[in-house]
Amino acid sequence: MQTNLSEEARQLPRAEEADKILRTCVHCGFCNATCPTYQLLGDELDGPRGRIYLIKQVLEGAPATAQAQLHLDRCLTCRNCETTCPSGVDYHNLLDIGRAVIDQAVPRSASQRLLRQGLRALAPNPILFKTLLQIGATFRPLLPRGVEAKLPHDLPAPGERPVPRHARQVLMLEGCVQPGLSPNTNAATARVLDRLGISVIAALEAGCCGALDYHLDAQAVGLDRARRNIDAWWPYLESGAEAIVQTASGCGAFIKDYGHLLERDPVYAAKARRVSEMALDLVQVLADEPLERVCAATDRRIAFHCPCTLQHAQKLGGAVEAVLTRLGFNLTAVPDSHLCCGSAGTYSITQPELARQLRDNKLNALESGHPEVIATANIGCQSHLNSAGRTPVRHWIELVDQVLR
After folding, report:
1. Is residue 234 part of a domain?
2. Is 174 in contact with 387 (CB distance < 8 Å)?
3. Of 38, 249, 302, 341, which sits with the fewest C-beta atoms within 10 Å of its C-beta?
4. Does residue 73 sit within a domain?
């Protein structure tokens, strides 16, 4: 499409990038066919094409409005539209640029500011988050249904974590909420990798990947977290660590974007590019490893929920399914497996009604094959799907850990 950015927009650090993305769009509308919010709401402005128009108008000088902000807020950033788009529109980066401009121009209500600041203060702090979970579990009967449903039920004990002992070593992002919501995930990962001759080493200085701040009106804070992680990981990468492994696909998608997001930083650009290259989802590490040698065959009936951040952002759709099939798991068919479950980071909290509808639709699809358990690859999806109290949802590596010989 043709563009005519305003003089003010041309001064933005990412103005050239925004202009290039806008010009790539041919407004064909294919994106709306696979957009979860457009399917639910039927509003052109709640689909990718409409949101692109809104961003274009603001960058061309139209006033930013609270209504435009709402339509952008409703986007899950699932990136399904990017998978569908025949023109290769880099939608999520345009959305980030547009959100930053509109959020700066349109003040949020006091309640929204409090909610977003609270999430940014709580979620990236694993100790505080885990403490509040324990308090919540104690007072579970007194909590509102919406809050109580977010608390984990019947978590498997994490078990022992092997001491590093192998020449092959990888770093692993521990995560913010995962240690509290699913403490066995990283321990199971370390056990499986250990059996394959790969040790997980800790970089204690590393923390939150930065995605949560970046997507909650605090992009600069999110990038500062990225820089701190790069500093924490760099000595280990120089010492021979093979990869930075993520067990949460949402975190992995963001870390793989460090190189792009920090490409204008003269101090961190080169390091960020290398970190992004070294960042691997767990399935990328295990795909070529001889799992059959260390795992017993199983025919356990499961459904796999492939998170949007795995299939659309990292382009790894089918990778986990292939590993699980190799081990004998009986994977049930999942209709509309490309659609988002509604978790989308903090979306289930900031847009609870839409998130619940998407969750229930996704569970209906996942349960249609009558699985014993649902497996996934992202803690946000796992927690959100579990909140319905239906078929139990676990990280897929926990199921692999259970069949270790």
Report:
1. no
2. no
3. 302
4. yes
160: its two tokens: 């022992």
CA dihedral 2, 6, 10, 13 (to 10 degrees): -100
Provide the number of structural domains found in the chain.
Answer: 2
Domain that holds residue 310: 294-402
- The DSSP 8-state label assigned to residue 295 in this structure reads B
Q: Identify whether 123 is part of a domain.
A: no
Domain endpoint, select from 52, 81, 105: 105
**From first to last of its 405 residues, what are the pLDDT tens digits of the chain?**
899 999 999 999 999 999 999 999 999 999 999 999 999 999 999 999 999 999 999 999 999 999 999 999 999 999 999 999 999 999 999 999 999 999 999 999 999 999 999 999 988 888 888 888 888 877 777 677 766 777 777 777 788 899 999 999 999 999 889 988 999 999 999 999 999 999 999 888 999 999 999 999 999 999 999 999 999 999 999 999 999 999 999 999 999 999 999 999 999 999 999 999 999 999 999 999 999 999 999 999 999 999 999 999 999 999 999 999 999 999 999 999 999 999 999 999 999 999 999 999 999 999 999 999 999 999 999 999 999 999 999 999 999 999 999
Is residue 130 one of the residues assigned to a domain? no
